[in-house]
Known about the structure:
The complex is a heterodimer. By secondary structure, chain A is an alpha+beta fold. Chain A has three helices and seven strands.
Amino acid sequence: MKEIIRYLNDIIKGLCTLVKGMAVTGHYFFHPKLITTQQYPENRATLKMQERFRGEVIMPHDANNRHKCTGCGICEMNCPNGSIEIITRMIETPEGKKKKVIDKHIYHLGMCTLCNLCVKACPTGAIVMGQKFEHAVWDRSQLTKVLNQPGSEIMTDEKE
Amino acid sequence: MAFDIYDFTSLTSSIHEGLATFLPPVGVLVAEWLLVGISVLLFVAVFGLILVYLERKVCALFQQRLGPMRVGKWGLLQTVADFIKLLMKELITPNKADKFLYNLAPFIVIIVTFMAIAAIPFAKGLQAIDFDIGVLYVSAVASLGVIGILLAGWSSNNKYSLIGAMRSGAQIISYELSVGLSLITMIILAGSMQISEIIQAQSTGWFIFTGHIPAIIAFIVFLIAGTAETNRGPFDLAEAESELTAGFHTEYSGIKFAFFFLAEYVNLFIVSAMATVLFLGGWMPFHVGSFEGFNAVMDFVPPIFWFFGKVMFVIFVIMWFKWTFPRLRIDQILTLEWKYLLPINLLNILLMTLIVLMGWHF
């Protein structure tokens, strides 16, 4: 008798769980607003990427064409596949001190795996991950980018 | 030519008489065979394409996706484009395949579906053959399809194909029982195996309402077993993509693959049509007892729309199964059949017999 009750119980429970599952998918079916797919080339104007999306490495500059990169080279050391090359030069500050500043922050987008290690390692937060993802170009030399803009300087007065 | 959307008998008889005026009796027979054959062929091709499109859209909506959107408005021409692609693809026969059986298998599968469609009543008078044993004929013919699947798996000389075919064989032969027994349950209620009579018996109410409890149980069992019969839904382990690449049709390409593909969807239609005929009244409009006004309004909708509406409903439910439930293992499938569906079915037949004998149905 116990066996029969368990058997019937199995059937009823099974049917209930099946109906539960169908209710979930049925809810999706009758609520097309829940659709998450986006129609990419059409929605280009309104396309909003996720905050954590990693499109490329960029170096934000402020209105006075200044960035935060000290040229320390930690990002270059942390890059697993050598996508970053740091070229520095020595300058003389007004006080007469010699100081190393960034000359060229070279970024090979073609080799980059967007692993985010350089951004994590950067002590000053000079480089971040950008949202742009349409990187197709006609020549691969165009994939080698210089991240610091020409004539840019380091933000120094902020700390002093 | 008399044409009446409510009763196709006048149309078919006027075609018959029109042919008889300028052809000898044998010629009329041959011409009618050809006409029926061509219309079934057209129906299978067009309806198959529509079903494939619907499946992709319905699946997408269940999974919060959009589905095909690029080819034509809302991707309406997607399946047409796919079909053209399949027609143009190279037909590859593996070197060590059993050539004859390999080429024969897709034709067996597709011919079987044509044979089953012959007995499906689309509307009043719109049925190729109305056998005395229509229900038995459809279930017998539909079960022939497994031979094509087994042949395809065996002759491909591929381990995936063979495993898929064997699983499919074990599954279809087991679920044949449940389908047959749930059909018998309804035949007890109808008192006839002739499809036109079964539909006529439902003019006062569909069997799922007049047969109440046992009919509803039989309907659920039939839906589950029918899904398994068509190798779909949670029972698609014959082609289980993640384990067997594509199961029995792994080695097929081009139009031969399209035959298997089309046959699967037409089988889906046949199962839904049988469910419609036996449980939901076929092309019979929805009638409630003696509400004359309501019944007259329902009669206004042509039977062919009733039929396709109900078939689409059943197809939608089966698609709902497919895109909700995870695939069963082979032992789970056989457990479900032999330990659950079969005993339930046998008890259900007893219950139905009792109800019919005591006259407890409506």
